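Morning, I've got a small favour to ask if you have a moment. I've dropped the whole record in just underneath, so have a look.
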Amino acid sequence: MRIPVLVVLLVIGAAAHAAERTVPQRTPPVAVILKGEKRFADVREATGQLFAGTNALRVNAGRTALARSPELAAAAGSFAGFMARTDEYGHEADGSDPATRAARAGYDACIVAENIAYQSLSTGFSTGELVQSLLDGWMDSPGHRANLLAPDITELGVAIARSARSGKYYGVQLFGRPRSQTVEFTVRNNADASFEYELDGEVQSLPVRTTSRHLLCRQATLAFRWPGRQPATSLKVETAKVYEIVRGAAGEFRVNMRDARP
């Protein structure tokens, strides 16, 4: 007696998007042989597991866990639903982009980044298998992994939707940092000489008795370059601070840090 076997086609697609890059990646179809009945993942349960699994990966990598953003979740859900209804795939499949979708959902962003993926298996997935396959695919791709583990991201919205026509499951991770968490600080030159400082790779000059105010979406390092032979001073930027440059008693440059006035 011949035992029937079921040839299963696993199709995985993934793409990552951040403000400064788009890194699509697709894995060629892989044929495997399995037995069993058609399975359907619980999309609602899978969405919750995807959120928890994303944070678990971040914590394991030494990153902070992300807070759930209702606005990012709504934007991710809307986009996953669109891809599932149309089987159109890509960060601009609906004619917009991640930042636009987040803003449309009411998210006032400083940073927005997005990972998307689709998965299809002729026998279907259990809920846990679907979530794990999405996370594994993103972590195995440098572009997706960078978004998922980005240190300056603070909030997250995720969604999964299934296409009734193709059976594909579409997953979306939408990462953000709200404008309310902008890093704001001031550099003030109260010394008697001009100097330069480097911020995020950009060199800026600050004349005597002038002030420079900065608004950043990411943490950064300030590197002060002093005139003469005094070694440079580097420090991590803190928000709501004033970095005041003065001369010490021996003629050296010093950085006095204080809280900005409300």
User: Anything to note?
Assistant: Residues 1-12, 19-34 have pLDDT under 50 and may be disordered.
